[in-house]
Design goal:
The chain is an all-alpha fold. The chain has one domain: Glycerol uptake facilitator protein. It is 72% helix and 0% strand. The protein has 8 helices and no strands. Helix 1 runs parallel beside helix 4 and helix 5 runs antiparallel to helix 6. The longest helix is centred in the N-terminal third of the chain and has 29 residues. The model has no long low-confidence stretch (mean pLDDT 97).
Length: 220
């Protein structure tokens, strides 16, 4: 079954919308329900992982279910999508993510946009984002090679786990990073941290790409 470019772009927009709606919305809800940061993080990680399983499952046949500019970048490096598709995918991902953040704010009776004051730009979080994105690229592209049917569960499980084993709580996604600066809540990031995180995510993705290329190269 073939889908038009507009159908693919709409899928990337809607998937990115629901991803960030879940990230920000579940963070707000969890923070309202508990004064324990550990419980709040758990209440944020589980819905995010489950939503990834769902949106990857339903949108993968249409757009590939990237929902992440660095994932689309790797697909372009692997010559699976064109440069124009990469550009359009990234635009849809970022706009969908920002819209998801705005709607999350609104449905929890907050102003549509509140610039985050949560600082996330120290060295430990920079390194965490490199590691988180490197791992995500491994999970996605090795999953495509060896466990395609399990890919939604693999990605959802990885991100839910990485919330806990990284000090940055594993953004691993430039679109999500850009969007989360517009909510001054539990899952926010101050504008100063955005370029730091995005730089780390691109580095992690590129390292992951070359590692996957080497790991999956078979001897002649």
């Amino acid at each position: 079954m073939k889908f038009s470019r507009n159908q693919k772009y709409a899928s990337e927009f809607i998937g990115s919308f629901f991803l960030v709606l879940t990230v920000v919305g579940s963070g707000i809800m969890a923070d309202k329900l508990s004064n324990d940061d550990g419980i709040t993080l758990l209440g944020n990680a589980i819905p995010t992982g489950l939503t990834l399983v769902i949106i990857i499952s339903i949108f993968a046949p249409i757009s590939g279910a990237h929902f992440n500019p660095v994932v689309s970048l790797i697909f372009w490096l692997k010559k699976i999508i064109s440069l124009s598709e990469l550009t359009s995918y990234v635009m849809m991902q970022i706009s969908g993510a920002i819209f998801g953040c705005i709607i999350a704010n609104i449905i929890f009776e907050l102003p549509p946009v509140t610039i985050s004051t949560l600082a996330r730009h120290d060295l430990s979080q920079f390194l965490s984002e490199i590691l988180a994105t490197f791992g995500l690229v491994l999970v996605i592209f090795l999953g495509i090679e060896f466990a395609r049917l399990n890919l939604p569960v693999l990605v959802g499980s990885y991100i839910a786990s990485a919330y806990w084993f990284t000090s940055s709580t594993s953004f691993a996604n430039p679109a999500v990073t850009v969007a989360r600066q517009f909510s001054d809540t539990f899952t926010g990031i101050s504008p100063f941290g955005v370029p730091v995180f995005i730089t780390a995510q691109i580095l992690g993705a590129i390292i992951g790409y070359y590692f996957v290329q080497w790991l999956t190269h078979t001897a002649d």
